[in-house]
Amino acid sequence: MITETHGIAHALLGNLTWAALPYVRAWRDPSLSEIIGAGAGSMVVLGAIALFALITWLGKWRYLWTEWFTTLDHKKLGIMYVLLAGVMLTRALIEAMLIRTQQATAINAPGLVEPGHFAQLFTTHGSIMVFFMAMPFLIGLINYVVPLQIGARDMAFPYLNSVGFWLTAAGSALMMASLTIGEFSTGGWSGYPPYTELAYSGGVGPDYWIWAVSLSSLGSMTVGINVACTIFKFRAPGMGFMRMPLFCWTSLCTAILMIFAMPPLTVVTLLLAGDRYLGMHFFTDGGGGNMMNYANMFWLFGHPEVYILILPAFGVFSEVISAFSSKELYGYTSLVLATTAIAVLSFTVWLHHFFTMGQGADVNAAFGIATMTIGIPTGVKIYDWIFTMFRGEVRFTPPMLFSIAFMMTFVIGGFTGIILATPPLDYMVHDTLFLVAHFHNMLIPGTLYGMIAGYMFWFPKAFGFRLNERWGRISFSCWAGGFFLAFFPLYVLGAAGMARRTQEVFDPAFRPWLYIALFGALVLFAGLASLFIQLYVSIRDRAENMVPIGDPWDARGLEWSVSAPPPEWNFAVIPHVGNRDAFYWRKRNHGAYVRADQYKDIELPKNLMCGPVIGVAAGLCCFGLIWHIWWIASLFAAASVLTVIARSFQRDTTRTIPAAEVEAVDRRWLAGAHASRPVPRQQEETSLNQGLAEGFEPDRAHGLA
Amino acid sequence: MSSGPVSPALRHAGLNLKYASREEAEQIESDVFGFWVFLMSDAVIFALLFALFGTSLEATVGGPTLASVVKLAPAFIETALLLTSSFTFGMASIELKRTHKFTRRHRHRAVGWLLLTWALGIAFLGMEAHDFVTMAGEGAVPDRSFFLSAYTVLIGTHGLHVLTAVIWLPILLMQMYMFGLDRPLKVNLIRLSLFWHFLDIVWIAIFSIVFLQGAIR
Ligand SMILES: [Cu+2]
Question: Which residue windows are transmembrane per the record (chain B) (predicted)?
Answer without folding.
Answer: 32-53, 65-89, 110-127, 147-173, 194-216
